[in-house]
Write a structure and sequence with these properties.
It is a single chain. This protein has 334 residues and is α/β, with parallel strands linked by helices. It is built from 15 helices and 10 strands.
């Protein structure tokens, strides 16, 4: 063998190895080494609702595992209930309403919205009353108790908007938090402790199927029609410390979101042990795909300010858009 061949052999071998690595499938060892998340085991605190079908689909289909993640879902009654634990580092990512996170951001906490989960569609969030209830109109709610999964979450905002748009002050109803959240609320409504309940799917359907409850008002209307509901949120510090973990999580969620409309019934049914008679007829929200839409989230902050779930002292930040932009993408950096 010539001197040239002896010198060239290692170089050629290195080139071949490089080319093989570049053409390997995304699941190969080369890809895994390059994209390996800083954390493989993460906890996602999530409300049990069809709005988060993208998350449940990603678990059910093994999409997180394909990205090198093991996701443990911790079910919570509302995103409001987990903020304190998240700020202490006890929860990695929260999946639920934006409302308490926008309020916390305004008050000085620092969060980042990683991905969107859902936007309203008809009957996916509703006010429900028992069968044969004497309440037949929105006006009939005056002086009554309404069960909610979190008093400073999306239910507060949607109910406030509904009441004010019907000429009723939200102060004329009493919002009562059920600490067990949506799964317990259809049954609790029967006890008479409250006269109406704020429910999400599939619990709107469960209330009707199991108890004969009726929808008093679909909350996909007026100022909150097609409204952004839930998203995936981490503290800014956690997101900055784990950029590859965030990227892997978002990739899996995006895949889950893309097929959620068709895969949701099976995934939600498995996650919450629900029968096909419920999951087969439950209403589904829209499942946004792609980068977080700042304009869509800005709409939430604007309506929060309009209906009093965000104080007027934050009006300038809301109107200039700086409050929401501080929670999204590169704007969330210090």
């Amino acid at each position: 063998m010539s001197t040239w061949n002896l010198r060239a052999a290692p170089i050629i071998a290195a080139i071949i190895i490089f080319l093989v690595g570049c053409t390997s499938a995304p699941g190969s060892a080369t890809f895994a080494a390059a994209a390996k998340p800083e954390m493989q085991d993460i906890t996602v605190a999530a409300i049990p609702a069809s709005d988060l079908a993208g998350l449940y689909v990603a678990v059910d289909k093994g999409l997180f595992a394909q990205q090198g993640l093991q996701v443990r879902i911790r079910k919570i009654p509302s995103s409001q209930s987990v903020i304190a634990a998240q700020l202490k580092g006890q929860v990695d990512i929260s999946a639920g309403s934006y409302v308490p996170y926008i309020a916390a951001q305004a008050a000085g906490a620092r969060f980042r919205i990683l991905a969107e989960a859902s936007t309203l569609r008809p009957d996916t969030r509703a006010l429900v009353v028992p069968a044969h209830s004497g309440i037949t109109t929105i006006a009939g709610l005056v002086g009554k108790k309404i069960g909610v999964n979190g008093t400073n979450s999306i239910g507060t905002l949607l109910i406030s908007a509904l009441l004010q748009e019907n000429g009723i002050s939200p102060k004329k109803v009493d919002l009562v938090t059920d600490n067990e959240g949506f799964p317990a609320m259809p049954g609790q409504l029967q006890s008479g402790e409250w006269q109406a309940a704020f429910l999400a799917e599939p619990y709107v359907t469960i209330a009707g199927e199991q108890y004969g409850d009726e929808i008093l008002a679909d909350l996909d209307q007026g100022a909150t029609a097609n409204f952004p509901i839930d998203g995936y949120v981490a503290t800014r510090a956690w997101a900055q410390q784990h950029p590859k973990t965030v990227a892997a999580f978002v990739r899996a969620i995006e895949e889950g979101q893309a097929i959620a409309a068709t895969a949701a019934p099976a995934a939600v049914g498995t996650a919450d042990q629900l029968p096909p008679m419920v999951t087969g007829v439950m209403a589904l929200p829209d499942f946004p795909v792609g980068p977080v839409d700042e304009k869509r989230i800005q709409r939430e902050a604007t309506v929060m300010l309009q209906f009093g779930t965000l104080g007027q002292q934050y009006a300038t930040e809301v109107e200039q858009g700086t409050l929401v932009s501080s929670m999204i993408g590169l704007a969330a950096a210090p």
